[in-house]
Design a protein that fits this description.
Layout: E1 2-7, H1 15-30, E2 33-37, H2 41-46, E3 49-52, H3 83-93, E4 97-102, H4 104-115, E5 120-124, H5 140-161, E6 164-169, H6 176-184, E7 189-191, H7 199-211, E8 217-221, E9 234-238, E10 244-246, H8 249-261, E11 265-269, H9 281-299, E12 305-310, E13 313-318, H10 319-322, H11 331-338
Parallel strand pairs: 1-2, 1-4, 4-5, 5-12, 6-8, 6-11, 7-8
Antiparallel strand pairs: 2-3, 9-10, 12-13
Helix pairs in contact: 1-9, 5-6, 7-8
């Protein structure tokens, strides 16, 4: 069987490990051939392919980013978009099936193409950990490790100067990165999209920390809403999907804290540092296992399916199940963390 592999959407630590796992298992166990599709769905629409063999994936598990490139492209748009044109591209290359590695948008497009008759298996990718039907997605652990290290570093300067540090992490709709890195880094408050808070409550936590002789450390998701806000803070325009480019809520909150408490406050936006660089050991293993499982799903002709982590086992689920709704931070997990606030 000849299999095409693409990585779509934002880059993420572990993408290359998925590619390596899929290629090595496919070649060794099933004598499959592989074709790399450059720059996500754009490469599939434009017919931009590259050779992909065992030599191409050598040593890839530790490498960040994606050797295939990525883009935020809608495969149904443009002169060469749509399932009929895409199928012609695949037929011309002799490609029998596609492994699509990506997040919610990528998998939603994969489902539509599958419904139109194209043979696709999905692999979940998101540092936000917001995809349903999988306990964890690769890239999340690396993002949490990077954020935790930043919190540890910023705490030392906070203590040295008696400042309040506000650390902004990624998380458009869900607060998993903030929750995990905040708990790991001993944050005195964790602010996430699922739990709007008033500035008065935030300042109360900050003052409790100061009164104990400590320097407050606040972790906030980029999509956090202060009570009364109707949409997440954005001042950077729109992305390729016409969504607001988030970022800057920490810089909005820090001066408000300083004004109300008199505590010198600083904001640090971690931004894309959370998704760059080498993946953690956990993400390398998870990504490799998911890539190998994608080959199993293809051999079983489970089109429209996605590989998934349930507990410690890799399972096959439907893409529809995975894209049916966001996996948000449940109330009990936030309540658990809130015991440590202030």
């Amino acid at each position: 069987m000849k299999i095409g592999i693409l990585t779509s959407g934002g880059d993420c630590p572990g993408l290359n490990a998925v590619i390596r796992g899929a290629v090595l298992k496919g070649v060794r166990i099933h004598d499959d051939e592989f074709v790399g599709i450059r720059n996500g769905w754009r490469g599939l629409v434009d017919g931009d392919f590259m050779a992909l063999d065992r030599h191409s994936v050598r040593g890839l598990s530790k490498q960040g980013g994606t050797i295939l490139g990525s883009s935020r492209t809608n495969p149904f748009e443009g002169e060469h978009g749509g399932p009929e044109n895409i199928q012609k591209r695949l037929d011309a290359q002799g490609i029998d099936a596609i492994i699509a590695i990506g997040g919610e948008g990528t998998l939603a497009a994969a489902q539509r193409l599958t419904d139109a008759g194209i043979k696709i298996v999905g692999v979940p990718k998101t540092i936000d950990n917001d995809l349903a039907a999988t306990d964890y997605s690769f890239g999340f652990d690396t993002a949490v490790e990077i954020a935790t290290e930043a919190i540890d570093r910023l705490r030392t300067t906070a203590e040295s100067h008696g400042r309040c540090m506000v650390i902004e992490v990624m998380g458009r709709h869900v607060g998993w990165i903030a929750l995990h890195s905040g708990m790991a880094g001993g944050a005195h408050a964790i602010l996430i999209p699922e739990q709007p808070q008033t500035i008065e409550q935030i300042c109360e936590w900050v003052e409790h920390v100061r009164d104990r002789g400590r320097a407050p450390v606040i972790v906030v998701s980029e999509g956090f809403l202060l009570a009364g806000m109707e949409e997440a803070h954005s001042h950077k325009g729109l992305d390729a999907f016409n969504r607001p480019r988030l970022g800057g809520i920490g810089e909005l909150i820090a001066p408000m804290i300083e004004e109300r408490t008199g505590i010198e406050s600083r904001a640090t936006v971690l931004g894309h540092t959370q998704r760059g660089g080498a993946p953690s050991a956990y993400d390398r293993v998870l990504a490799t296992r998911l890539g190998m499982a994608a080959i199993d799903a293809i051999q079983a002709e489970q089109w429209g399916s996605m590989v998934s982590l349930k507990g410690t086992e890799i399972e096959i689920v439907s893409i529809k199940e995975a894209t049916g709704g966001l996996k948000t931070v449940p109330q009990d997990r936030y309540d658990e963390a809130a015991v440590l606030f202030g």
